[in-house]
Specification:
The chain has 144 residues and is an alpha/beta fold. It is 19% helix and 34% strand.
Length: 144
């Protein structure tokens, strides 16, 4: 069994996945537009180019996503956060800084905490909430 998050974007899934590819080193491996599907004749022309389904892969990790449409309006990705676990503090700082460019909000700047040598939280420019966590614990900390 594997959990695979399915995200919703406000008409910019393709752009978001291209950005995540640059930051995380992955790529979009599938992209289907509403206009490419059967039964889209009555759909407004502006919605036909929106992404119905996309798949983004980094190693064996997968994100799926869709663009919102008028009949399924965008509601930010609430009630969840994507967590990225890295092994080195420098990688945590790099990923956090890249995702923070143009971010909607930085909830917790990347810093040492009592459970990790680097941890930070933000909502990126596309409305996706992220937690970046380095697996190393600070000196003297006991397992959490």
């Amino acid at each position: 069994m594997k959990f695979v998050p399915y995200l919703s974007f406000d008409g910019n899934t393709e752009e978001a996945f291209a950005f995540y590819g640059k930051v995380l080193g992955g790529q979009t491996t599938a992209l289907l537009r509403f206009g490419d599907t059967p039964g889209c004749d009555g759909m407004p022309a502006a919605d036909k180019n929106k992404v119905m389904h996309a798949r983004f892969e980094v190693g064996d990790q997968v994100l799926l996503a869709t663009d919102a449409t008028p009949d399924h309006p965008y509601q930010s990705n609430r009630g969840m956060q994507l967590t990225i676990q890295v092994k080195e503090p420098a990688e945590a700082e790099r990923v956090f800084a890249a995702l923070a460019e143009g971010a909607q909000s930085v909830i917790m700047p990347i810093a040492e905490t009592f459970w990790s040598v680097r941890f930070g939280m933000l909502v990126d420019r596309y409305g996706t909430p992220w937690m970046i966590n380095c697996e190393q614990m600070p000196a003297g900390a006991e397992g959490c």
